[in-house]
Amino acid sequence: MSATMALVFGIMAVLPLFVGGTAHMMHILIMCLIWAVVASCWDLIMGFAGIFSFGQVAFFVIGAYASAIFSIQLGIHPLAAMVLAGLVTAAAGVLVGLPCMRLKGAYIALVTFAVHMILEPFLKSGMGRALGTGGTRGILTIPPMELFGITFAADNKIAVFYAALALAVICSAIIMLVIRSSWGTAFLALKDSQDFAASLGVSAFKYKLAVFALTSFLTGLVGGFYAHYIGMLSTRLLGIDLFVMLMIMLVLGGIGQFPGAILGAIMTVIGNEMLAPLGAYRPLVLGALVVVLVLLLPDGIMGLLRSLVPHKVAEQVRQG
Amino acid sequence: MLKTTDLNAYYDQFHVLHQVSCEVHEGEVVLMLGPNGHGKSTLLKSICGLVHKVDGAIVYKGEAITRLSTEKLVNRGIIYIAENRELFGEMTVLENLKLGAYSRNARKAEKKNLARVFELFPRLATRKKQLASTMSGGEARMLAIARGLMSNADFLCIDEPSLGLQPNLRIEVFNIIREINRQGKTILLVEQNIPQIAELAGRIYVLEEGCITFEGTPEAAAREERLKEIFLGM
Amino acid sequence: MKKLGLFILICSAIVMGTISAHAADVIKVGVPLAMTGPYTDTGDNYWKGIKMAIDEINAAGGLLGKQLDPVRFDTQEFAPERVMQGADYLCGQEKVDSVHAGWAGWGQDVRAYGKYTAPFFADDGSQAAVDVFREDPKKYANIFQLTDTDINQATSMFNVLMALPHDYPNKKVVIINADDAWGMGVGDTLEANFKKEGWEVALREVVPYGTREWGSIMTRVRRIKPAIIHVEIVSAPEVITFFRQFMRTPTPSILSYGYSIVPREVVQTMGKEADGLIGEVPTAMPTPEAPTPEAQAWVERFTGIWKHQPQAGSWAAYSGVKAWAAAVVAVGDEKNHAAVAKHISTEGYKGETGWWKWDEDNVMRGGGDVPFGHYQVQNGEMVTIFTDPPVKPYKDYKFITPRWIK
Amino acid sequence: MILEYLDVFISGLTNGSVYALMAVGLTLVYGVSKAFNFAYGSFYSLGGYFAWVLMVLVGLWGGYIVVFALAVPFLMGFGFVTEKLIIAPLRKRSDWEVKVMMITLGLALFMDNGFQVLFGPRMKSLPPLMEGAVSLGDIYIANQDIMIFVLSVSGILAFRWVLNNTRIGMAVRAVAQNPAGAKIVGIPKNRIFAATFGISTVMVGVGGILLAQKYFVSPMGGWDILVKSWVITAFGGMGSIRGGLLAAFILGMLEAFVGYWFGLSWVLFALFAVLLTTLAIRPQGLMGKWG
């Protein structure tokens, strides 16, 4: 697991040597890293913890708005705002997680997706505007992060890239540690059978809430990073496009196949750009691709790799 | 009538049945004995197409039926009557019985079978409109057997029909099985309450750790020291 | 593991391979529009105008002897990073010499394209975009708006409503708008204007897109019996269902649809049924008879190519391309972005209806030769009844009292 | 005042009948096969486009009766084949539920954009099913709405009758209640799954035609339908048709009255507030059962 991650991030780290001069390419690489974290968090909650949470994009947007609002309204340093935003998002995650504790499958999906659905009207409403969301206009001026005399703004993409890389490495490492820890085992037990897990003394309640808190914290943190990088926010993030893209990342990488989600994110972002010449046919092809991938590669790229590489090596990869 | 040759069955990674060969002749009641978890139910389910991974040969009335789907088997007259009954709880007794006659083979005989079943189980006749989930254990067991009979099957695989029943109800169930057999049905029976059931059986197989370890008449089985444990252990 | 590494290398190689060399004798023109998703419809309107302008220029021998080569980019749903990516792709990587958009991000686009120098034409119609521009007019000198802001358009709608040759039975108005930036901007402005004139805003409803059942609003409308109902939702199904449900038991109210009259389906679907509705289009080509022979010829060319009447946005986007081309010819160098932009903002451009002049905010303000058009549906077609500012009747076309007002 | 409430009440009924029609198919598939269909909204659009192609593009004679007569077998076949092709193969996997959600989401993306490429991004309209209105004093009820109400309620009742009184309907209920038991008695479970999917496609597709003549068809128009059906299904209890019916009319009323008292922008908040409260008290919905 860690070897794959090291390789992926290692390759990512040297890519600016080749495309560092092209803002467009750097932007794509940065978005790869940002979505990699968001998709990994989703994988942790859905693939490992087995909770059908559909609120991932909502948490991302909550984090982004929170960080922007903290840095603008309170005038605090964007880094502090990001961490605060992470905490706010974690709180939101716990809040959403609580009613989900008693629910099953498609109901959890609905409740979490409801958060997604309601977020847009909320951000646009009077309440949202009072908080500083800018209503329907969005927030068009968000201060960039400045650290050690470097400005991590949209016109300094190489700096942003390495900051994003550092963030992605840290977040992925946390996710990996969680999966390998006793938590990971508990999740597996929970996924197999709630009753069985209970007999082992695993408290479903505690772990599920904890995974909601952790994934939303990381997602919110990255959302904050996104806000300060792009420098503007609008509710258009909540369209169906991003949601579907994230889902494709997960399908492509393999659900519950961490670090497959990272690979999935990178391939989806890049693949989506490569399909751009198709114009209106792009989403058509994407949709068909999802169908074919789920049928032919049910465990995603990661599953394919594991079946390609001899079993022992795969085991090593998994063990790290 | 039915013959298995070198039958193997698997659940996921677990190899449950090993090279099982057994035979049931027309009109016979064959009793399958053995400790719990050694593959008796799996054998019945393998015959009835309810186990995904099976190899070896099953021949029924001279035709190979290995890996045929359950609905085809039911249509050919093989029915499984489950130990845990598997009734449709939110439906009435009558609906359960009608669903028992779902296969094409059973549909044409539905009326006749319904009359016969109500004759066999007069208590069901009085409770046609009752929901299956509200029935007592004994009644539900009767309903499960009755539903199996509705399939117009010639070959009944009955899985532990007396499980969880009080002694007097057990006797009733066994009497009914005897009556069914008398009416011409062939029965492969998995049971653990030997003393009462043994007299029903024409022959006995013993299945241990997925292998057949004994075959013979009840009298022969009773003479086997080794099997006494199984007999009395129940 | 090796296979994985190889795979990633191949992927990145393919990506880098897409940066291919281009011939030097073309001028690349960026066209970021919604090609997929819910905004596809408007994107299509703009594209038809832009394509027509580019084809005309190319057919006439190109610009400075070079052919124009449109590079399209799908802005999808205008998520912030998507808007930025469009700018990075078109200006940063493809190095286009001008960008022609329509709806482009309502302020987000100004930020994204302001980082580059290529002249950028948008049809945002949004005060938010102007506010961003004003933060740093020098930096954003390449940003041009083809239409006036929501605030000014709404004020124009209000002025025309007040100027209608119609006796309002009372001073009550109902305002219904969509919950997007445009709808809110128009709704807020109208509300303020009506209140200032001593009207009662008896009902102000903000509704989400996708609303099809208006029963609960109609109940209240029937009680209020307002003199004016203004609906501002730029989406055909919403406004058509509203109209049909209103017509079951109509109140004697002027139905003002503002910019929501624009989706072609409104007139196409309802035909004469829609007679009486009024609406507004900025940077509009007046119909059925254009103000000048050149303009009339343009309408006929457009109809000839695309087989339908031009819709709002087509002409604005077309004119954006032509204005830029004229400036390039005047400057003599398409690469001198600053000079081209300066020429556009100082000299303007002479189009089919007359002069286009951008103001100090690089906004094409309504008025002069390119006024706001105010329409009424008559006999199943949109007819210009007023232009503004100043509010004056257009040619001989007259407002007709809607049939539901006795 | 009373008249106004009556007016709003009628809007609520109209909403409710539309929602009921939308949601029954979704709850059916979930109840029988536990498969959650994200492409449900696209099937709705499919129905609308099917009718548009026949009536407007081809100009078929015979009106809606012929369209419905052709739509039912078409939609049934479409749903059946879709299930066989993309959902049945996933059933063997332990994590098939989430896989089904994803594959149907992919299908939705494919279909919606397919509609856009084929028919263009602009909305299409169909001729009205019925014109005119009934007036009762100051209250007007459009014949169109009456037709929708009558057709959808009778459609659902007919469907319930089929479920309760026919062999195939009983088999569908049997699979929903006890898949293992259904298999034992020789009900071809996989065919029932596919058939249910087909029936649900018919329900939503015919609903699409019925509503398209009032609300129009557009490529992305199905998402609203999906979300609303989903809310109704969960509210009423996934898998419970009676619960779905009840939920549809409760939510239809809620929408009408919240819209009347507070404004349409509060409807969504109210909808989810009611849903969350219900689920907090009864996690299985109004009439749902676990499992």
Oligomerization status of the protein chains: heterotetramer
CATH architecture of the largest domain in chain C: 3-Layer(aba) Sandwich
Largest sheet of chain D: 2 strands, antiparallel
Counting DSSP E segments of at least 2 residues, the number of strands of chain C comes to: 15
Total of DSSP H or I helical runs spanning 4+ residues of chain C = 13
Mean pLDDT of chain D: 88
Strand content of chain C: 15-25%
Spatial extent as radius of gyration of chain C: 22 Å
Order of helices and strands of chain C: HEHEHEHEHEHEHEHEHEHEHHHEEEEE
Structural class of chain D: mainly alpha
- As a whole number of angstroms, the C-alpha radius of gyration of chain D is 19 Å
Assigned CATH superfamily of the largest domain in chain C: Response regulator
What does this structure look like?
The complex is a heterotetramer of chains A (320), B (234), C (406) and D (291). Chain A has one domain (2-239). Helices cover 75% and strands 2% of the residues of chain A. Chain A has helices spanning 2-14, 16-19, 23-48, 56-74, 78-100, 105-124, 126-131, 157-180, 182-192, 194-199, 204-230, 240-253, 260-274, 282-296, 300-308, 311-319; strands at 145-147, 150-152. In chain A, a hairpin with a 2-residue loop joins strand 1 (145-147) and strand 2. In chain A, helix 3 (23-48) packs antiparallel against helix 11 (204-230). The radius of gyration of chain A is 19 Å and the shape is globular. By secondary structure, chain B is α/β, with parallel strands linked by helices. Chain B has a single domain, classed as Rossmann fold (3-Layer(aba) Sandwich), CATH 3.40.50.300. A six-stranded mixed sheet of chain B has the order 6-7-8-3-9-10, sandwiched between helices. Chain B has a four-stranded antiparallel sheet with strand order 2-1-4-5, covered by helices on one side. In chain B, strand 4 and strand 5 (63-64) form a beta hairpin. Chain B starts with a strand and ends with a helix. Chain C has 406 residues and is of the alpha/beta class. In chain C, a hairpin with a 4-residue loop joins strand 11 and strand 12 (355-356). Residues 14-22 of chain C have low confidence and may be disordered. With 291 residues, chain D is mainly alpha-helical. Chain D has one domain (2-121, 130-281). Chain D is 75% helix and 3% strand. In chain D, strand 1 (133-136) and strand 2 form a beta hairpin. Chain A binds chain D through residues 46, 52, 99, 102-107, 109-111, 113-114, 117-118, 121, 125, 240, 244, 247-248, 250-251, 255-256, 280-281, 283-284, 286-291, 293-295, 298, and chain D through 30, 34, 36, 86, 89-90, 93, 95, 97-99, 101-103, 105-114, 116-117, 220, 223, 227, 230-231, 234, 238, 265, 268-269, 272, 275-276, 279-280, 283, 285, 290.
